[in-house]
Amino acid sequence: MILKTLDDLLGEGVSGRRVLVRADLNVPFDKSNPGVISDDGRARAVLPTLIALRDAGARVIVMSHLGRPKGAPDPKYTLAPVATRLGELLGSEVVFAGDTVGPDAQAKAGALTDGQVLLLENLRFNEGETAKDDAVRAAFAGELAAFADFYVDDAFGAVHRKHASVYDVAAVLPHYAGGLVIKEVDVLKKVTESPEQPYVVVLGGSKVSDKLAVIKALLPKVDKLLVGGGMCFTFLKAQGHEVGKSLLEDEMVGTCRDLLSEAQGRIVLPVDVVAATEFSADADHVTVPASEIPADRLGLDIGPESVALFAEAIGGAKTVFWNGPMGVFELAPFAAGTRGVAEAITKIDGFSVVGGGDSAAAVRTLGLDESAFGHISTGGGASLEYLEGKTLPGIEALEK
């Protein structure tokens, strides 16, 4: 149980006080336009917390990671463009520090006035952020904590990481859960502890191995488990079908066979797929039965009959959890499966959750109405680990 929330902190009064906020600003960038953010959903998600603190007169110091730099500064992963976008969303300038705990950050944090917001440079430019050594991580957390009087974690997308800014800072400063973290946990409790039946889970993405634990955790609870994306081909192989050049985890075929047996018909697989000659938007492609994928082609999307089959299962649900696209939605010829399934989810007479990651990106990339979903999570990995029943370090820290 999380002990204190942002509302508790605001009730105590923060005017003139320094508040360190862990946000998840790990936004994607346009590959053809470096420095241009392609989806600012994560930045928008933390706005209510930042606005509440700013308007209450706090001196707000925001920290986040971006990408996977190797513990040293890398211009490719600078948060500078994110500071600009965050300022646009807030309607007021966000000061940017060119380092995380160095001279620039120290000077700018010290110069903050009431209601100002500062964004520190990428946390992962410092090896202490992700260090396995507890002492190294704690030392970096101490440097971060020195900036502030209070700590607020509103980065649900990072709570499954035992990192300095997520786990160790909370041991040093009075700590509070932001509104986004509270909402995410409440939603996930709803779909794990008391989902209204019928309960349908839609899983996509590349690998069965990535989703195996969540499949095992959810299978006893669901009425239907719909499987698309690259992971479906390992299941199809387990049924005895050839899958051509499609993505395949040979070592997982036996596991998939066991899951299909255990599920007794509750795992639903595609009945047709869009098979292409290569992984390209310009590739020749054709829709074929899932049992007849040509040897020289690879499946890149589920077909229209599969969309109809999945939509029928989704249509009768009272609870739907969706994680992972049905195909390579970034390429126009292979986006119809994800779009069709997503649209079916928006029409249910019940509660739907989009489990973050690529699923959330697909909603925005395909121009779907975000408000038509019950909840769009900001944390794909964190959502899955919660559903698996794992202890999330960031949540554990907030409970102490």
From TrEMBL:
**Entry's CDD domains?**
Phosphoglycerate_kinase
User: What name is this protein filed under?
Assistant: Phosphoglycerate kinase
Q: Which GO terms describe its molecular function?
A: kinase activity
Pathway listed for it is: Carbohydrate degradation; glycolysis; pyruvate from D-glyceraldehyde 3-phosphate: step 2/5
Q: Which family does it belong to?
A: Belongs to the phosphoglycerate kinase family.
Its UniProt entry gives the catalysed reaction(s) as:
(2R)-3-phosphoglycerate + ATP = (2R)-3-phospho-glyceroyl phosphate + ADP
Subunit arrangement?
Monomer.
The UniProt record lists the keyword NAD: no
**Residues at which substrate binds:** 24-26, 42, 65-68, 124, 161
Q: Keywords on this record?
A: ATP-binding, Cytoplasm, Glycolysis, Kinase, Nucleotide-binding, Transferase
Cross-referenced Pfam families: PGK
